[in-house]
Amino acid sequence: MTQAIHKPAQTPVADPNRAWANNWPVKTHELHSHHFDSTIWNDFQFRDDDVVIATYGKSGTTWMQQIIAQLIFNGQEGLNVGDMSPWMDLRVPPAPVKLAAMEAQTHRRFLKTHLPVDALVFSPQAKYIYIGRDGRDVLWSLYNHHANANDLFYDLVNNTPGLVGPPLEPPCSSIRQYFHDWLQGDGYPFWSLWDNMRSWWEVRHLPNVLMVHYAQLKADLPGQMHRIAEFLEISVDEAQWDSIVEHCTFDYMKCHAEQVAPLAGQIFAGGAKTFINKGTNGRWRDILTAEDIEWYESVAQAQLGKDCAYWLANGELPVG
């Protein structure tokens, strides 16, 4: 499980003339685990046009990285998005290596995090895109990710110096039991969905935060991409638009999986195409019982409140 180490809050520098100047999130704690080392953000030097992609995980992170890469580079082929857009708070490679690589980039930078807001150093100038997805769909994708991890994966997360807390073990053989353990253990053996979702929901009204839902991307990819481009203040080249959208489809990403998957998919049995798995929702409906579903929904509403829980499940707010 993720271990939280509390430390004094850090206040980011903000422009006092902006309406939100006194309401920017502040960092209140560090998160360490077999995956996390949140301290990297303490030394990260933001640029004014940085883009930070935030999710709990398995919620469309890689999809959003591909979308933003295609918008920035106007539909260019052959982009190695996995290298260009690192997971900053992952413990590997070491922070100095990652920070130096990001400092060397000359294009508009786009990077990812799986941290809650209060474990980040938040920049008022950067743009943040948060992607939500029904937790049950997240869990099904997470199980595929975990069950197909190979020896290199475990060596990296467990044997890289600086591990805090227990190592990550292979998952059980039953996905329903995995779901039970995850829900009962508040994200076990990874981290809390509720803390992550709740923290981003609380800052959704900030002018540099955009909330996107996986179901919205599935239902209207071109429309959501226009929305993202507008938020990022990227002028879309209409002559390239069809190619840009095509390069962000699941089929295209599956065919070019080595370019978008972390470490080109070397950490998964079957390679990168295992990482880019199905991209579908609702697989849990054939496995979970009515009692399981009621349990999940009651926990989600208790943890997130009615509106946030509904948005996470559906990608929209409840009517009335």
From TrEMBL:
InterPro entries named in the record: P-loop_NTPase, Sulfotransferase_dom
Keywords: Transferase
Domain Sulfotransferase: 48-305
Pfam families the UniProt entry points to: Sulfotransfer_1
Sequence similarity: Belongs to the sulfotransferase 1 family.
PANTHER family associated with the record: SULFOTRANSFERASE SULT
Protein name, UniProt field: Sulfotransferase domain-containing protein
Organism (species): Leptolyngbya subtilissima DQ-A4
